[in-house]
Amino acid sequence: MKYFIFLLASCLLCINAFAQSEPTLEYPKNVAHGSLGTALVFNSFQLSYDRLLKQKNSTFFKAYYLTLKAGGHITVNFSPARSGTGYLTSIGATALTGKGRNHFEIGLGLGYFIDTIATFDDDVPIADYDESTFYPTISIGYRKQTSKGIMFRTGVGIVEWAYFGFGYSF
């Protein structure tokens, strides 16, 4: 009996315990992606570049990116009296939540919308006038992204409307 207690005590004292910590996810420094968006009368396309500003694994938002976008839009009107197309650029910030490859993204920024409207009138066959303006950019969506490799995103936003896109993170 003494031998059994000595053996049990020796085993309990000699057991090594290893605690495992949750590995920290390394977010990519750069992400280049393109997206297509659509609504009932608007269609848009954008090329974007995201640069990692800050990463904090202990807060709700895990990563913050500076986002630069450039693209265009096409307005589909069924009236020959007015149709417009234009270009857009924007700068903003995108915040990501979530662990692993799946993220919820929120983007806020300021953009410049270059819009030229063509009109057809009896007096003037074609007249162009400029309706360029600044606008807020807002997007809410889902992003599947790895440290390096292909990324996918989808969601809704102002200017992109209902969008989906693909890109590459590096």
Please identify, by name, the CATH architecture: Beta Barrel
Give the distance, in angstroms, between the N- and C-terminal Cα atoms: 64 Å
Mean pLDDT: 82
Order of helical and strand elements: HEEEEEEEEE
Number of strands: 9
Integer tally of domains:
1
**Number of helical stretches of at least 4 residues:** 1
Structure description:
This protein has one helix and nine strands, in the order αβββββββββ. It has 170 residues and is mainly beta. It has one domain: Beta Barrel (Porin). The chain has an eight-stranded antiparallel beta barrel. The longest helix has 13 residues, at 2-14. The N and C termini lie far apart (64 Å). 23% of the residues are buried.
What is the gist of this entry?
The chain is mainly beta and 170 residues long. It has one helix at residues 2-14, and strands at 30-38, 42-55, 63-75, 82-97, 102-119, 127-130, 133-144, 149-157, 161-169. It is rod-shaped.
List the helices and strands and how they pair.
Blueprint: H1 2-14, E1 30-38, E2 42-55, E3 63-75, E4 82-97, E5 102-119, E6 127-130, E7 133-144, E8 149-157, E9 161-169
Antiparallel strand pairs: 1-2, 1-9, 2-3, 3-4, 4-5, 5-6, 5-7, 7-8, 8-9
What key phrases describe this protein's structure?
mainly beta; eight-stranded antiparallel barrel; Porin; 170 residues; 8% helix; 9 strands; 1 helix
